[in-house]
Amino acid sequence: MRFTSEQRLDDGVLERGFILDGIPGILWTPASVSPSAPVPLILLGHPGGLERMYPRLLDRARQSAADGFASATLELPGSGDRPRSAVTEQARADLRRAMAAGEPVGPEIVDRLVLPLVDQAVPEWRAALDALLGLPGIGGPVGYSGGVIAIGTRLALVEPRIAAAVLFAGSFVPAATFEEARRVTVPLHVLLQWDDEGNDRQASLDLFDAFGSAEKTLNANLGGHTGVPRFAGDAAAQFFGRHLR
């Protein structure tokens, strides 16, 4: 991991950009962090495009820091300046065409769009976790917060260092993700925007039902994809406060 930038924000949070194996990311740590008092870590998932997503990620990172957590994010495969995949780009074009025509988005398109992303992104997140937990002041336990929900589901299943996850519904769900969800056992808090124009609400509800976790909570709110109310974020913060201390 090589740090490429550093700035101290007005609330004392330290923001550092980094490159790991050619992949850009950002690490935020609260002012209180020190090698003698390591803080838990939250991985911030998102749908891709760090520059576009930065304001929303920064808000989430500031909230995490105020709660005493470090947080970090990575650029997704095929987003930002990362190389594009011909398979994924064709799937994305097929998706846009189907939605413009008012046609249902078939499982074959969803698989081509999402599964290659999951297969590449999850090992990258695990490599980032190796590097981040090796830094002074960063300790466990670790949480995952955000989307793409298929990435969060796979990571919660295969990464034993993930102690709890807040998953954002609102992305397409391959059939294989339902099978993986049945084997997820960590505590979960799922956020669902009821009127999300790009989300198959029933698929999100079915996925929540499939999760094998003994503790799982669904927080559903009226509103579109970006209209998550502040109190929903507060509930997610309280969830991590219970499970990452």
Helix-strand layout with pairing:
Layout: E1 2-8, E2 14-20, E3 23-29, E4 39-44, H1 50-66, E5 70-74, H2 86-100, H3 107-132, E6 138-146, H4 149-158, E7 162-168, H5 175-181, E8 188-193, H6 201-210, E9 216-221, H7 230-243
Parallel strand pairs: 4-5, 4-6, 6-7, 7-8, 8-9
Antiparallel strand pairs: 1-2, 2-3, 3-5
Helix pairs in contact: 2-3, 3-4, 5-6
The number of helices is 7
Extract low-pLDDT stretches.
none
Main-sheet strand order equals 1-2-3-5-4-6-7-8-9
Helix and strand content put the structural class at alpha/beta
Envelope shape: globular
Rg, please? 17 Å
How much strand content do the residues show? 15-25%
Protein described:
By secondary structure, the chain is an alpha/beta fold. 40% of the residues lie in helices and 24% in strands. The protein contains 7 helices and 9 strands; from the N terminus they run ββββαβααβαβαβαβα. It has helices spanning 50-66, 86-100, 107-132, 149-158, 175-181, 201-210, 230-243, and strands at 2-8, 14-20, 23-29, 39-44, 70-74, 138-146, 162-168, 188-193, 216-221. It has a 9-stranded mixed β-sheet, with helices on both faces. β2 and β3 (23-29) form a beta hairpin. The longest helix is centred in the middle third of the chain and has 26 residues, at 107-132. It starts with a strand and ends with a helix. The mean pLDDT is 95.
